[in-house]
Amino acid sequence: MKKNILFMMFVSLMIVLSSCGGNTDVVDSGTYSGKIKEIESEKTEIYVTLEDGKTLELYFTEKTTLTKNGEDVDFSELAVGQDVKVEVKKVGKRLDPISVIIKD
């Protein structure tokens, strides 16, 4: 019985991990362009695939700015497939988005 419970816990964990954004990359602090691959609204998180194929996992903070046409917009304005320009700060193995600009 205990083996079955441990097995089910392991399977559940693997499902949760595989449903996350997948493999992501850490880049140096800077500004990058790419397309939104995935959005997790409840976490205010986006995955952005860069032009070189790397994927960034970005959790918005209270300091992250989101703009379109020079004006602040709500997180709900983001959509999968949109072109964006992101400025990130590398903090250890994490990337903090400073600004996200939705391109036209």
Structural write-up:
This protein is an alpha+beta fold and 104 residues long. The chain has a single domain (23-102), classed as OB fold (Dihydrolipoamide Acetyltransferase, E2P). It is 17% helix and 44% strand. The chain has 1 helix and 7 strands. The chain has one helix at 2-19; strands spanning 30-40, 45-50, 55-59, 65-68, 71-72, 83-91, 94-102. The chain has a 7-stranded mixed β-sheet with strand order 3-2-1-6-7-4-5, with no helix packed on it. A hairpin with a 4-residue loop joins strand 2 and strand 3. The longest helix has 18 residues, at 2-19. The radius of gyration is 16 Å and the shape is globular.
Poorly predicted runs: 13-21
User: How many domains is the backbone divided into?
Assistant: 1
Distance between the termini: 57 Å
Order the strands across the largest sheet as they lie in space.
3-2-1-6-7-4-5
Order of helices and strands: HEEEEEEE
Q: Categorize the overall geometry.
A: globular
CATH class: Mainly Beta
The number of distinct helices, counting runs of at least 4 residues, comes to 1
Largest sheet: 7 strands, mixed
- Helix/strand/pairing class, anyone? alpha+beta
Classify the fold: give the CATH topology.
OB fold (Dihydrolipoamide Acetyltransferase, E2P)
Q: Tell me the β content.
A: 35-45%
Helix content: 10-25%
Concise summary:
This protein has 104 residues and is α+β, with helices and mostly antiparallel strands.
SSE diagram, text form:
Elements: H1 2-19, E1 30-40, E2 45-50, E3 55-59, E4 65-68, E5 71-72, E6 83-91, E7 94-102
Parallel strand pairs: 4-7
Antiparallel strand pairs: 1-2, 1-6, 2-3, 4-5, 6-7
